[in-house]
Amino acid sequence: MVGALPQLMTLDEFLGWYPDGYGRYELWNGVVIKMQPTGMHEQVGGFLAGELFLEIKRLQWPYVIPRQAIVQPVDTDKSGYNPDVIVLDQPALAEEPLWKKRSTITQGISVRVVIEIVSTHWRDDYGHRFIDYEALQIPEYWIVDELGLGGRRYIGSPKQPTLSIYQLVDGEYQVQQFRGSDRIISAAFPELQLTAEQVFAVGQ
Length: 204
Hints:
This protein has 204 residues and is α+β, with helices and mostly antiparallel strands. The protein has a single domain, classed as tt1808, chain A, CATH 3.90.1570. The chain contains 6 helices and 10 strands; from the N terminus they run αββαβββαββαβαββα. Strand 7, helix 4 and strand 8 form a beta-alpha-beta unit. The longest helix is centred in the N-terminal third of the chain and has 21 residues. The protein is globular and about 45 Å long.
Protein backbone atom coordinates (compact mmCIF):
# COMPACT_ATOMS: atom_id res chain seq x y z
CA MET A 1 0.00 0.00 0.00
CA VAL A 2 1.32 3.42 -0.91
CA GLY A 3 1.32 5.76 2.08
CA ALA A 4 0.07 9.31 1.95
CA LEU A 5 2.63 11.89 0.94
CA PRO A 6 3.83 14.11 3.82
CA GLN A 7 2.31 17.57 3.99
CA LEU A 8 4.88 20.05 2.70
CA MET A 9 5.44 23.19 4.74
CA THR A 10 6.70 26.66 4.00
CA LEU A 11 9.34 28.03 6.36
CA ASP A 12 6.75 30.32 7.93
CA GLU A 13 4.47 27.35 8.64
CA PHE A 14 7.44 25.37 10.01
CA LEU A 15 8.41 28.17 12.38
CA GLY A 16 4.85 28.41 13.62
CA TRP A 17 4.72 24.63 14.16
CA TYR A 18 8.18 24.27 15.74
CA PRO A 19 7.78 22.73 19.24
CA ASP A 20 10.23 24.93 21.14
CA GLY A 21 12.15 23.04 23.78
CA TYR A 22 11.18 19.61 22.47
CA GLY A 23 13.91 18.40 20.14
CA ARG A 24 15.67 19.85 17.14
CA TYR A 25 14.17 20.05 13.67
CA GLU A 26 15.06 21.36 10.23
CA LEU A 27 13.04 21.99 7.09
CA TRP A 28 14.37 20.55 3.83
CA ASN A 29 12.45 21.43 0.68
CA GLY A 30 9.21 21.60 2.62
CA VAL A 31 9.76 18.39 4.63
CA VAL A 32 10.32 18.46 8.41
CA ILE A 33 13.42 16.53 9.48
CA LYS A 34 13.93 15.58 13.12
CA MET A 35 17.57 15.81 14.14
CA GLN A 36 18.77 13.02 16.42
CA PRO A 37 22.43 13.77 17.23
CA THR A 38 24.56 11.30 19.17
CA GLY A 39 25.93 12.06 22.59
CA MET A 40 29.41 12.46 21.10
CA HIS A 41 28.02 14.93 18.57
CA GLU A 42 26.44 16.99 21.35
CA GLN A 43 29.59 16.91 23.50
CA VAL A 44 31.71 18.35 20.69
CA GLY A 45 29.13 21.02 19.91
CA GLY A 46 28.81 22.02 23.55
CA PHE A 47 32.57 22.15 23.96
CA LEU A 48 33.06 24.42 20.94
CA ALA A 49 30.21 26.70 21.97
CA GLY A 50 31.80 26.99 25.43
CA GLU A 51 35.27 27.75 24.10
CA LEU A 52 33.97 30.43 21.74
CA PHE A 53 31.79 31.92 24.47
CA LEU A 54 34.85 32.28 26.72
CA GLU A 55 36.67 34.13 23.92
CA ILE A 56 33.68 36.40 23.39
CA LYS A 57 33.48 37.17 27.10
CA ARG A 58 37.22 37.72 27.45
CA LEU A 59 37.35 40.11 24.51
CA GLN A 60 33.98 41.70 25.33
CA TRP A 61 32.74 41.30 21.78
CA PRO A 62 29.07 41.97 20.96
CA TYR A 63 28.45 38.38 19.88
CA VAL A 64 25.86 35.89 21.07
CA ILE A 65 25.62 32.09 20.81
CA PRO A 66 21.93 31.13 20.86
CA ARG A 67 20.71 27.76 22.09
CA GLN A 68 19.06 27.26 18.69
CA ALA A 69 18.62 29.33 15.56
CA ILE A 70 17.20 28.63 12.13
CA VAL A 71 19.15 29.80 9.07
CA GLN A 72 17.07 30.43 5.95
CA PRO A 73 18.90 29.80 2.65
CA VAL A 74 18.57 32.43 -0.05
CA ASP A 75 15.78 32.29 -2.63
CA THR A 76 13.61 29.73 -0.85
CA ASP A 77 10.76 29.65 1.63
CA LYS A 78 10.85 25.84 1.89
CA SER A 79 14.06 25.22 3.88
CA GLY A 80 15.67 26.21 7.18
CA TYR A 81 18.84 24.82 8.78
CA ASN A 82 19.43 24.40 12.51
CA PRO A 83 23.26 24.57 12.89
CA ASP A 84 25.10 22.74 15.66
CA VAL A 85 26.72 26.01 16.76
CA ILE A 86 26.20 29.53 15.46
CA VAL A 87 27.83 32.78 16.56
CA LEU A 88 25.79 35.88 15.81
CA ASP A 89 26.66 39.57 15.67
CA GLN A 90 24.22 41.04 18.15
CA PRO A 91 23.99 44.57 16.66
CA ALA A 92 23.20 43.07 13.23
CA LEU A 93 20.20 41.22 14.68
CA ALA A 94 18.30 44.52 14.76
CA GLU A 95 18.06 44.24 10.96
CA GLU A 96 16.85 40.63 11.00
CA PRO A 97 13.08 40.63 10.31
CA LEU A 98 12.44 37.18 11.81
CA TRP A 99 14.84 37.16 14.74
CA LYS A 100 12.79 38.54 17.64
CA LYS A 101 9.74 36.35 17.12
CA ARG A 102 11.17 33.35 15.26
CA SER A 103 14.93 33.18 16.13
CA THR A 104 15.57 32.96 12.39
CA ILE A 105 18.50 34.36 10.40
CA THR A 106 18.00 35.51 6.82
CA GLN A 107 21.20 37.52 6.23
CA GLY A 108 24.75 36.18 6.26
CA ILE A 109 26.05 39.47 7.66
CA SER A 110 24.40 38.58 10.97
CA VAL A 111 26.59 35.49 11.37
CA ARG A 112 30.23 35.46 12.47
CA VAL A 113 30.73 31.67 12.48
CA VAL A 114 28.53 28.68 11.73
CA ILE A 115 29.63 25.19 12.78
CA GLU A 116 28.37 21.79 11.66
CA ILE A 117 29.54 18.54 13.27
CA VAL A 118 29.62 15.71 10.78
CA SER A 119 27.32 12.72 11.18
CA THR A 120 26.59 9.80 8.88
CA HIS A 121 24.82 12.34 6.63
CA TRP A 122 28.15 13.99 5.84
CA ARG A 123 27.13 14.88 2.30
CA ASP A 124 24.74 17.47 3.72
CA ASP A 125 27.54 19.31 5.54
CA TYR A 126 30.01 19.26 2.65
CA GLY A 127 27.31 19.72 0.00
CA HIS A 128 23.94 21.40 0.58
CA ARG A 129 24.93 23.44 3.62
CA PHE A 130 28.25 24.46 2.07
CA ILE A 131 26.47 25.79 -1.02
CA ASP A 132 23.76 27.58 0.94
CA TYR A 133 26.07 29.11 3.58
CA GLU A 134 28.36 30.37 0.82
CA ALA A 135 25.39 31.83 -1.08
CA LEU A 136 24.33 33.62 2.12
CA GLN A 137 27.88 34.98 2.36
CA ILE A 138 28.39 33.69 5.90
CA PRO A 139 32.04 34.66 6.45
CA GLU A 140 33.24 31.51 8.22
CA TYR A 141 31.98 27.92 8.16
CA TRP A 142 33.52 25.12 10.23
CA ILE A 143 32.99 21.44 9.44
CA VAL A 144 34.09 19.29 12.36
CA ASP A 145 34.61 15.75 11.08
CA GLU A 146 35.87 14.05 14.24
CA LEU A 147 35.36 10.53 12.85
CA GLY A 148 36.78 11.19 9.38
CA LEU A 149 33.48 10.30 7.71
CA GLY A 150 33.61 12.76 4.81
CA GLY A 151 34.48 11.79 1.26
CA ARG A 152 38.14 11.59 0.27
CA ARG A 153 37.69 14.54 -2.07
CA TYR A 154 36.91 16.63 1.03
CA ILE A 155 39.32 15.31 3.69
CA GLY A 156 41.94 13.46 1.68
CA SER A 157 43.26 9.90 1.77
CA PRO A 158 43.66 8.09 4.05
CA LYS A 159 40.59 9.53 5.73
CA GLN A 160 41.22 10.88 9.22
CA PRO A 161 39.61 13.27 11.71
CA THR A 162 39.67 16.70 10.09
CA LEU A 163 38.43 20.16 11.04
CA SER A 164 37.84 22.25 7.93
CA ILE A 165 37.42 26.02 8.14
CA TYR A 166 35.97 27.69 5.07
CA GLN A 167 36.43 31.45 4.84
CA LEU A 168 34.95 33.79 2.26
CA VAL A 169 37.52 35.15 -0.17
CA ASP A 170 36.08 37.31 -2.95
CA GLY A 171 32.67 35.82 -2.29
CA GLU A 172 33.76 32.16 -2.41
CA TYR A 173 34.82 29.74 0.30
CA GLN A 174 38.48 28.81 0.58
CA VAL A 175 39.39 25.99 2.96
CA GLN A 176 42.12 25.43 5.51
CA GLN A 177 42.21 22.07 7.28
CA PHE A 178 43.45 21.09 10.73
CA ARG A 179 44.40 17.69 12.14
CA GLY A 180 46.18 16.36 15.20
CA SER A 181 48.16 19.02 17.05
CA ASP A 182 47.45 21.74 14.47
CA ARG A 183 46.30 24.95 16.13
CA ILE A 184 42.95 26.02 14.73
CA ILE A 185 43.26 29.29 12.81
CA SER A 186 40.07 31.31 12.63
CA ALA A 187 39.71 34.80 11.19
CA ALA A 188 36.68 35.34 13.41
CA PHE A 189 38.55 34.21 16.57
CA PRO A 190 42.22 34.93 15.80
CA GLU A 191 43.42 34.51 19.40
CA LEU A 192 41.72 31.16 19.96
CA GLN A 193 44.16 28.70 21.55
CA LEU A 194 42.73 25.35 20.55
CA THR A 195 44.04 22.38 18.57
CA ALA A 196 42.13 19.98 16.38
CA GLU A 197 42.93 17.02 18.65
CA GLN A 198 41.56 18.89 21.68
CA VAL A 199 38.24 19.20 19.86
CA PHE A 200 38.19 15.59 18.67
CA ALA A 201 39.13 14.23 22.11
CA VAL A 202 35.95 15.66 23.64
CA GLY A 203 33.78 13.19 21.75
CA GLN A 204 35.85 10.09 22.48
